[in-house]
Design brief:
The protein has twelve helices and five strands. The protein is mainly α and 329 residues long. The chain binds adenosine-5'-tetraphosphate.
Length: 329
């Protein structure tokens, strides 16, 4: 059985992009993969953070994932398992500055004011490689935005193997869902939907009520043209494309099929149908999340149990990596 590793930053409540790009696939993969799912709280320190908010959001994210169908024993938070930090440091020393300089996510997140960002943001992809390889995971379900980081993780694994004269680390395969691989902001179809976008209206979260969802979809930016009947008609219409792609992904239909149904109409009826579809799938997740959040002790116990399992898998792997680099035990 192939091992899957995937993580999500507890930098906010998971949103529709996280759901379609990651969480929904995680839930499906559990049936026939050995899955390890991680709340990557160490990655959350790469951008400015507030301790109490991080604590609250880690619990909130745990509740959302469990409500979305993640099995409790497969979930834990990264900082509770030391294998991540230990292998992350080794990879900091294997990875090359030239490789990190090419990472577009660093450029996007750091913007023009690079000198002021944390060193953690810069070496984030090295820790992500360690997250995966500490478990010898070979399949990593991620959104399209993470493709470059997976390629870097493979470069690190190969260089480690080459330098240490071993074939210890396996090759990782990014598992990118074809539909809605990148969900865009509801306010700007050229920006990805993100937890850190200051506008609440830019994203649908997994704790939104049915009313929140309906309102956000009603207010979602569109243009004044009717929907086209063919995919080519979405060219240059980023917001329309995004909403149609979301509908297609949620309904498990092709974009063409959605346009055949709604093409030629204005956005009104389409938005109503999209809101209904989203409410039907996401409102029960939000309700279950709220229920789980009422019992913080239970959530903490679930994470502790998940961390124990994660330790039992990663500890022998990271100890072997430490032996290979020449550390004494
Ligand atoms: N908009 C998106 N569309 C599709 N997939 C997405 N993912 C994130 N945003 C989208 C996928 O969700 C998983 C977890 O992502 P993450 O939270 O660890 O990091 P991120 O990509 O940095 O997500 P955000 O929302 O943009 O967080 P902030 O604002 O904190 O940086 C990943 O598999 C990712 O591909």
């Amino acid at each position: 059985m192939k091992r899957v590793f995937s993580g999500i930053q507890p930098t906010g409540i998971p949103h529709l992009g996280n759901y379609l790009g990651a969480i929904r696939n995680w839930a499906t993969l559990q049936a026939d993969h050995d899955c390890v799912f991680c709340l990557v709280d160490m990655h959350s320190l790469t951008m400015p953070w507030e301790p109490e908010t991080l604590r609250r959001q880690t619990l909130g994210s745990a509740a959302c994932l469990l409500a979305a169908g993640i099995e409790p024993t497969r979930l834990y938070n990264q900082s509770a398992v030391s294998a991540h930090a230990r292998l992350g440091w080794i990879f900091n020393c294997v990875s090359r500055l030239g490789w990190l300089n090419r990472m577009t996510q660093f450029k996007d997140k750091a913007g023009k004011n690079r000198e002021n960002h944390s060193a953690g943001l810069y070496v984030y992809p090295n820790l992500m490689a360690a997250d995966i390889l500490a478990f010898h995971a070979t399949r990593v379900p991620v959104g399209d935005d993470q493709r470059q980081h997976i390629e870097l993780a493979n470069d690190i694994a190969q260089k480690f193997n080459h330098d240490m004269g071993t074939d210890f680390f396996p090759t990782i395969e990014a598992f990118i869902p074809p539909a809605a691989a990148r969900v865009m902001s509801l306010r700007d179809g050229t920006k990805k939907m993100s937890k850190s976008d200051p506008s609440e209206q830019s994203r649908i979260t997994l704790t939104d009520t049915a009313d929140d969802i309906a309102l956000k979809i009603r207010r979602a930016k569109t243009d004044s043209e009717p929907l086209p009947s063919e995919e080519a008609g979405l060219e240059g219409r980023a917001e329309a494309r995004n909403l149609v792609a979301i509908y297609a992904a949620m309904a498990n239909e092709s974009v063409e099929a959605v346009l055949q149904r709604f093409g030629g109409e204005g956005f009104g009826p389409f938005k109503t149908a999209l809101a209904d579809l989203l409410v039907e799938s996401l409102a029960p997740v939000a309700e279950e999340t709220r229920r789980l959040l009422e019992n913080e002790d239970h959530l903490l116990a679930v994470l502790r149990q998940g961390a124990e399992r994660a330790r039992s898998i990663s500890e022998p792997i990271v100890q072997e990596a430490e032996r290979l680099v020449g550390f004494l035990r």
